[in-house]
Structure formats: structure tokens, C-alpha cells
Design a protein that fits this description.
This protein has 169 residues and is of the alpha+beta class. It contains 5 helices and 4 strands, in the order ααβαβαβαβ.
């Protein structure tokens, strides 16, 4: 069924795993990080930290420490979204909201991206923490591979009316 409302950015966001070698500009990186920090945060604690990587050697090293990060061989940017558990009991939710903002902003900029889970896998957390020099008090939640898409995917929704409950269950 088609919908009469134009497709918003949120429906155009898809997981992109193939990238060109065109770099993401410093201005685009700044926009992505500003979008991340515009996310909602419980009690406005903002327990997030971000490590961004553009150097090819480090992008390739991250592939070596994360078994599902092969697309970083092509991506020209990786953002590691980290949380500070000591700053907020809601750090995972807050950092997940920041992650989605990055992904939506990337789509709006004509970039593509994909979320690569790190937390709660202790081995992934340790490997990413070591590779990026992240302090023990900070937990890497995910890596986001970002770049100029080398694949196109149709906008879509995965709407399932069976999961919607009006008024009560």
C-alpha cells in the first residue's frame, strides 16, 4: 500500500554496507556529531562520547578486532559511540538515540551507514577499547561504518500492524 505522505528521511534510512572511496568531509563529520548530541537524554545527563576514525590503517584495524566490520575496509569514516555508565543508568538508551540520529543525519547528507554492535559482547568491548584507547570507565556501544554509498536501496518501512496496540494490549 502506498502512503500519500512523502517518504521522510527516516524511511529512506537503510543499512548500507558498500561504499565508494570518496571521503566524508570534516563538515559532514561535524554535522553527524552535532546530530548525535541533539539526541534526547534521560535527565539531560548526556553520557555519550564519540571517537571518529578516518585513517585507513585504523579502519582496517577495527575490521581485525570486530568480526562483523568487514565493510570498514571500504568505509571512509567510522564513529564509535561510547557511553559512560557511571554518568547515567540510561546510558545505553541515550547512546542508542545518538546512534540513530547519526544514521538519520548520514542519510540526510546523502551518505550511508550501518550500525555494528559492540556492547554487550565483552570480547568486542575489550578489543575496540584497546584499539581506540578508550578508558575503562567508558563502554563502546557500537561502531558506525559511514561513507558515500556504492549501493542503492529503496526507502521502506517494516511496519507490522500486529505489533500495534491501541489503548491497551
Amino acid at each position: 500500500m502506498t502512503h500519500p505522505i512523502p517518504v521522510p528521511n527516516i524511511l529512506a534510512r537503510r543499512s548500507i554496507r558498500k561504499f565508494t572511496d570518496q571521503p566524508v568531509t570534516p563538515e559532514q563529520i561535524d554535522t553527524l556529531l552535532r546530530a548525535a548530541m541533539a539526541a534526547p537524554s534521560a535527565r539531560n545527563d548526556k553520557p555519550w562520547h564519540f571517537v571518529y576514525v578516518t585513517e585507513r590503517a585504523m579502519l582496517d584495524r577495527l575490521v581485525a578486532v570486530h568480526q562483523n566490520a568487514k565493510m570498514l575496509h571500504q568505509a571512509t569514516l567510522c564513529i564509535c559511540v561510547c557511553g559512560e555508565p557511571g554518568a547515567s543508568e540510561y546510558w545505553e538508551q541515550d547512546c542508542s538515540a545518538a546512534t540513530e540520529n547519526i544514521l538519520l543525519a548520514a542519510t540526510g547528507l546523502g551518505l550511508g551507514g550501518v550500525w555494528l554492535g559492540v556492547h554487550p559482547k565483552p570480547d568486542r568491548e575489550a578489543n575496540v577499547r584497546e584499539a581506540l584507547g578508550i578508558p575503562e570507565s567508558i563502554t563502546p556501544l557500537n561502531l558506525i561504518a559511514i561513507g558515500h554509498p556504492a549501493e542503492a536501496k529503496e526507502a521502506r518501512t517494516q511496519y507490522d500492524a500486529g505489533r500495534v496496540h491501541a489503548g491497551k494490549w
